[in-house]
């Protein structure tokens, strides 16, 4: 198991920045970045080197506003755009371009959401360990989450991280050999279902957004047409074709109204080389739902066992937000994260804003 010494504050490359380790194997609090102006390239280089080592960096009281937040993210890489912005029911109170994602518990008018509201129910999935953007084929790199307005101290709202590089290193060799060639399918709707399995509307949305059903339609159509050409049960076949095409058109119409994230599916290797650190990593999370080539039923126990392993306390760092303007940056290609919830829900504002960039490794 790789460890990082916690005996003293260390400096990386240049004395400009300092990094105080927060956990034996990953995570550090960074001091010395001046966010009041564009961050110099030399400092960007130091931050990249630190991210390769720690995976998670915490910056206190940055005083960043929305514009400088997104500008800093663009210095690190190409921004991911929230395709849900502008869709029905999605508040557009932040960046009209979608580069700054709304992770808060308020609606478009800044009012606190009820825990039973549709958006709150969807956000229950963020309380499970996951990686941002794994449901896209082009995956996410760094995420930068900033506290715009925090709830009162003592009411919760921390963010937890799991070290999936060290979790991989600690696996038994037999397990490593068994899973080394696995490819995992990821879907945003998988985590939304796991977060609120009792919500009937979410269950319906998960079913409707499952594009795997649509892939079977050409085969079913071919069977019906062959039966009709052979004169077998013609009336029943005609009814079946009508229902099949009606189902397909209805599903396509519904899918066209959903944001890209709800329908997208990403296929990624489970075991990956994290190139910046040259360490192997488990790339999984609550978006993962199936091993390619295996059934969902056979995949489920494997994914659940690996998730239990990687989210053990010894691999987890929980960061408490202290001040408005605090920001946490993490590398989605080597850590998982989750929101810890708390008594603030439905009572106090927790306005969080996130920029995410594409992985460039």
Structural summary, described in words:
The protein has 361 residues and is an alpha+beta fold. The chain folds into two domains: 18-197 and 260-358, Double-stranded beta-helix (4-Layer Sandwich); 210-257. Helices cover 34% and strands 20% of the residues. The protein is built from twelve helices and 15 strands. A seven-stranded mixed beta sheet has the order 1-2-3-13-5-15-4, covered by helices on one side. The chain has a three-stranded antiparallel beta sheet with strand order 12-6-14. α6 (188-195) packs antiparallel against α7 and α9 (217-229) runs antiparallel to α10 (234-257).
Average pLDDT metric: 86
The CATH C-level name of the largest domain is Alpha Beta
- The shape, in one word, is globular
Q: Structural class given helices, strands, pairing?
A: alpha+beta
Give descriptors for this structure.
globular; metal ion binding; alpha+beta; Double-stranded beta-helix; iron; single chain; 2 domains; dioxygenase; 7-stranded mixed β-sheet; 361 residues; 12 helices; TauD/TfdA-like domain-containing protein
């Amino acid at each position: 198991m790789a460890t990082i010494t916690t005996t003293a504050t260390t400096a990386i490359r240049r004395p400009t920045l300092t990094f105080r380790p927060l956990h034996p194997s990953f995570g550090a609090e960074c001091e010395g970045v001046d966010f009041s102006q564009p961050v110099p390239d030399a400092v960007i280089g130091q931050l990249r080197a630190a991210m390769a080592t720690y995976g998670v960096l915490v910056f206190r009281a940055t005083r960043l506003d929305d514009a400088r937040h997104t500008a800093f993210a663009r210095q690190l890489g190409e921004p991911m755009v929230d395709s849900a912005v502008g869709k029905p029911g999605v508040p557009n109170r932040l960046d009209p371009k979608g580069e700054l994602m709304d992770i808060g518990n308020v609606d478009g008018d800044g009012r606190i959401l009820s825990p039973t509201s549709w958006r709150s129910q969807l956000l229950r999935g963020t309380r499970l360990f996951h990686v941002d953007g794994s449901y896209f084929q082009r995956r996410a790199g760094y995420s930068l989450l900033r506290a715009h307005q925090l709830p009162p101290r003592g009411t919760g709202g921390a963010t937890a991280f799991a070290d999936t590089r060290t979790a991989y290193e600690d696996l038994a060799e037999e397990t490593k050999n068994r899973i080394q060639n696995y490819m995992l399918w990821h879907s945003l709707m998988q985590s939304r279902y796991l977060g609120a399995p009792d919500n009937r509307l979410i269950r319906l949305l998960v079913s409707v957004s499952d594009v795997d059903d649509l892939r079977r339609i050409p085969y079913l159509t071919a069977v019906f047409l062959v039966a009709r050409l052979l004169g077998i049960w013609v009336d029943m076949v005609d009814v079946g074709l009508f229902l099949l095409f009606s189902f397909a058109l209805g599903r396509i119409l519904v899918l066209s109204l959903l944001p890209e994230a709800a329908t997208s599916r990403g296929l990624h290797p489970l075991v990956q080389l994290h190139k910046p650190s040259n360490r192997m990593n488990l790339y999984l999370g609550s978006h993962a739902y199936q091993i390619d080539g295996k059934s969902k039923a056979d995949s489920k126990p494997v994914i659940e066992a690996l998730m239990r392993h990687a989210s053990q306390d010894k691999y987890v760092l929980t960061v408490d937000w202290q001040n408005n303007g605090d920001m946490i940056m993490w590398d989605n290609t080597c850590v998982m994260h989750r929101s810890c919830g708390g008594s603030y829900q439905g009572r106090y504002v927790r306005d969080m804003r996130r920029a995410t960039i594409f992985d460039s490794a």
